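Subject: Interface between my chains keeps coming out wrong

I've been trying for a while to get a sensible model of this assembly. When I model each chain on its own everything looks fine, but I need the whole thing in one frame so I can look at the contacts. Pasting all components below, labels as-is. Any help appreciated, I'm running out of ideas.
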Amino acid sequence: MSVLDSKVPEGPIKDKWTTYKDKINLVNPANKRHIDIIVVGTGLAGGSAAATLAELGYNVKAFAYQDSPRRAHSIAAQGGINAAKNYMGDGDSTYRLFYDTVKGGDYRSREANVHRLAEVSGNIIDQCVAQGVPFARDYGGLLDNRSFGGVLVSRTFYAKGQTGQQLLLGCYSAMNRQIARGKIDMYNRHEMLDVVKVDGKARGIIARDLITGEIERHSAHAVVIATGGYGNVYFLSTNAMGSNATAAWKIHKKGAFFANPCFTQIHPTCIPRSGDYQSKLTLMSESLRNDGRIWVPAKLEDAKAIQEGRLKPTELAEEDRDYYLERRYPAFGNLVPRDVASRAAKERCDAGYGVNATGEAVYLDFAAAFVRYGSEQAKIKGLKNASKEEIIKLGQEIIEQKYGNLFQMYEKIIAENPYETPMMIYPATHYTMGGVWVDYNLMTTVDGLYCIGEANFSDHGANRLGASALMQGLADGYFVLPYTIGDYLADDIRTGPISTETKEFDEVEKEVKDKIDFFINNNGTKSVDHFHKRLGKVMWDKVGMSRNEKDLKEAMVEIKAIREEFWKEVKVPGDANEMNPELEKAGRVADFLELGELFAKDALIRNESCGGHFREESVELDGEQKGEAKRNDKDFAFVSAWEYKGEPADAVLHKEELEFKDIELKQRSYK
Amino acid sequence: MNLTLKIWRQKGPQDKGKMVDYKVSDISEHMSFLEMMDVLNEQLVNSGEEPVAFDHDCREGICGMCSLHINGEAHGPDRGITTCQLHMRMFKDGDTITIEPWRAKAFPVIKDLIVDRMAFERIQQAGGYISVNTSGNTQDANALPISKHNADEAMDAAACIGCGACVASCKNSSAMLFVGAKVSQFALLPQGQVEAADRVKNMVAQMDLEGFGNCTNTGACEVECPKGISLENIARMNRELVKASLIKF
Ligand SMILES: Cc1cc2nc3c(=O)[nH]c(=O)nc-3n(C[C@H](O)[C@H](O)[C@H](O)COP(=O)(O)OP(=O)(O)OC[C@H]3O[C@@H](n4cnc5c(N)ncnc54)[C@H](O)[C@@H]3O)c2cc1C
Ligand code: SF4
Ligand code: FES
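Reply #2:
Try treating it as a single job with all components included. I did that and got this:
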């Protein structure tokens, strides 16, 4: 019997959230002043939550490991944010966004949460515009939209290629207003190292001041974790260097179930890896797929010639190219969802058709778009006899306006001009759909402990459509958590301040300090990065895009061995009571080494191909979908939620069965 | 390539710092500058020494965290980029590279190459926002049309990543480009106009309080700014300030 209660309200899906809001307990404004809330993380999720909770009148303490909330990793999001505004009049609606998100997530998300997300999405845009977020506009002064992979409407709002930056600066400015009013105490350069529970409820955290090394106790009536995703478990990913799983993993060890850890998103359009020294992978926004066509050579000998530098892509005739997405998925073409695009790229490269020296790259080609836009411009400008060169130049100008910064970024990294030769791209780990299990209220399995944004598992299922993470982060922070947390806190108005001078705080602080002392005093010989890279390699090779039982079992054993060696051999120079970036990394990698094993275990039990993950044992054998990934709804339409029991291998599985009442469960087809 | 690095080492804010020489070898020209620093740090850890502390996070030119002064230039020799986007192909085998933290009174050193940029935070808290309730009762976004031109210009100003290179490359350590960019973004948009006068006055007052120097129109900030924030923003801030001083309450 499962102990999971998703607390999804009764009633028709379209009324659930409204009726729920009408019925929940409210905290009187005068009482909010007596309630403290800790928000860990100040990206889009945590930042919007902190600002809104402070606006409502609660005392908020916010934490981030960077020197400013503005540097949270949300800043890096490029492409855009979805909202069902139907400003384009192309048939968009709340239901359609809901439908696309459930389908895109390969039917592994919770219907009620997704519907709520779609409902509040329009509000997010209104909110951000009011804050001064400079979204792109059309010539009439109205908001502009573009489309993203996996959908057939144009519902993505954007601010050049810097949408995450602008949204984050919007919520950062809302935070600043509250910091100035004294309603948010902002703890920059502070890292949460554990949670403190009193009588089963989350009542505080232990944090380290990263400048002085001091270990601090902070108490509150509720704790919100908004610390982002754990993609860095792969070492190489599109995440920031500091992105980590520590807060999520520590609360897992204190009773919060960890859901679907094996659901990661592999993003199809990243700049390929060039060597072993590489520290991270850079994403090229998926919006590029709106205009770029993806191809590899159709013949192996041409692929070889390109790999060896004997042939240039521009020299290859049209009929010698394989536009494999357009070939396999005529309805969606280059705009298939990320998982489909990623797997298809890997399939071609594994078959030997890759186009760079490592054989791990495909082309993203804008030549056709130059001509298409250029011809249109020539018409607009009344140029009757424009030459081919002139047309291409005009087209390049349009592409530059749309994606100039991305083209420039590419050129800086690869040292090749993408206006002259097609870009090279390859899939990379990007976003983690798995995370801390939460109910409809966004509460974890620990009372008073909430988890929002990328750190939780909730809305995306097995795969996340483009432009929906920003939407979820802001929905959680601005419009969902502020209601649901009030319902819980209504019981706390007489509690009074929570003391930090208790045995519960003593104990957790001691655990934290002991671990730090261990690192500083361990006489090892190998750097933290050494272990992180080894973990990453196992993860990518055996727990990556395609998986099988044998590899997964091996991965679990190998990760455990790396972890054991880590605890013997890791070396951390410097002191505990000063700024010490190596020490910070050591703690984070220690947690990745446990999470990685649970990740593999979760992948092992999920014997179906689902979302971004191709389970080699689960393939369509015939029919129109022959060779495509086969999902298995009969046995796997559930959320796996793991309970901590010591070693990751001993974690206990709980299943939240997923019910699809409003959307018919069917195999995805993008043909 | 083989390189000699001259790096500023400083244990803590109270300690005296000094330049220390290090050698690195086998550096690939495809590495980013920070990957080269990783190589050095790995080497230091392996030999039991303390690695060099430097700020960085996104490594794709957007978070504004990285902040190295390389051979006397903020974010190094290339233009329009941050340190994390600088590639080693900009250097030659045998080069000696000097690496220092941002130098400005308002940015005290925390450790080695890391400085404290909290002054920027306090300037924003002094008024760099629009006072709008965050609980979702705002008007429909399209109820307020904004000309494409203004939206684009506001976006250009809003692209500032708060890195502080402008301050570090200014002989007066002025923060005018940063503050000008923030003020401009809001000045170009219809939202938040009601508090425009207070916003600019408060932000400028806080900027002065933090100990940033004055602008003498040298323009070094614009040259070194990784996001191409233009001097026009300083002019706009000054205009806003004059306008604000003319408003009587
Ligand atoms: C390169 C890139 C491009 C993307 N593009 C898009 C896009 O176009 N559209 C889209 O919808 N999504 C996009 N995404 C995904 C989206 O940006 C993220 O999922 C989302 O921003 C995550 O927000 P968050 O608030 O949950 O976490 P983050 O923004 O990662 O914030 C995490 C916060 O937690 C803090 N923190 C972490 N650990 C600790 C700790 N132990 N103690 C204290 N503080 C801690 C950090 O300091 C930070 O403040 C992109 C992601 C990447 C990497
Ligand atoms: S104005 Fe330019 S140099 Fe100054 S902080 Fe902003 S981005 Fe950095
Ligand atoms: S590390 Fe983020 S801008 Fe350089």
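Reply #3:
Confirming on my end. The longest helix of chain A spans residues 388-414.
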